[in-house]
Amino acid sequence: MQRHAGIVLAVLLCLGLSQLALAQFPAPQGHVNDFAKVLDQRSRAELEVVAEELEREQGIELAVVTIETTAPYDPAEYRTRLFEEWGIGGPEDSGLLIVLSLEERAIEVETGYGLEGTLPDGKVGAYLDQAVSRYFAQGEYGPGLSYLAQAFQKELAGEVFEQAEEQRRAKPSGDWLIAFGIFLLIVVLMRRGRNYPPGGMGGGGSGPRRSTVFVPTMRFPGSRGGFGSSRGGGFGGFGGGRSGGGGAGRRF
How far is CA 230 from the centre of its chain? Predict the structure, then answer.
């Protein structure tokens, strides 16, 4: 009887330890948590700046995580559990989590309750498709994560489609440049013709007057600036944010 009781106790102890192991997640080290050691310096700096700007300008908490494996969870369950464990998003539930898992070759995005309206699952999935084809499938993990973070930042600010339209309108076509060059040449020739007397250049009087041709300058929409240095304060920790499982994931 005592032997059976000992076996049962050992089984229960093992089950308890396994459940404890399942519940353990790494503690956050900051907005960018490169546990898998795959980020280059530039990509890390870009991610840090985006995270700080999101928190400062919109009150949104971004966490980026790279890990070797999500085992024993599948990638989708892992991202949801990690989001809840860290409490990303604060009282407003305005949290955004991006998880890259190397062994599962998975990229996962979890959105807090407060962001589900602005970043619905379909829109998140569309950005993931772009990131997978452009970056993750080629093993460019840092640039891929940076692309996602910047895309979500602009989307949350309502800038993505408006900015793309402005760039399309401002981009000059080849025909426009040719026409502008011809117009500029005509203006120069006309001004030179008015600067000389009817007798030509050999006549008296003062020499040709200097003329000024105004050439308009054009500004094209560009990036918001470099990522050479981060701004704002340090990482203050997460806490309080919740998620209902919103977001999407892709394999590559």
Answer: 15
Q: Are 163 and 154 in contact (CB under 8 A)?
A: yes
3-state DSSP of 41-64: HHHHHHHHHHHHHHHHHHCCEEEE
For residue 190, tell me if it sits in a domain: no
Separation between Cα atoms, residue 106 and residue 39, nearest integer Å? 16
Let me know if residue 221 belongs to a domain.
Answer: no
How far lies 100's CA from each of 13, 45, 106, 142, 237, in Å?
A: 33, 17, 6, 10, 20
The CATH number assigned to the domain holding 152 equals 3.10.310.50
Within a domain: 205: no
User: What does pTM read for this prediction?
Assistant: 0.66
Dist. CA 25–CA 234, nearest whole Å: 22
pLDDT digits (tens, 9 = 90+) for 140-181: 999 999 999 999 999 999 975 444 444 444 445 455 567 667
**178-186 contacts: CB < 8 A, separation 24 or more?**
184/213, 184/215
Bridge partners, residue 96, by sequence? 62, 111
Count the domains in the chain.
1
pLDDT digits (tens, 9 = 90+) for 189-243: 776 655 545 444 444 444 444 443 333 333 333 344 444 434 445 666 887 899 9
62 is a domain residue: yes
Which range of residues forms the domain containing residue 115? Answer: 25-163+238-251
Which of 79, 75, 40 lies closest to 63, judged by CA?
79
Other CB atoms within a 10 A radius of the CB of residue 235 amount to 15
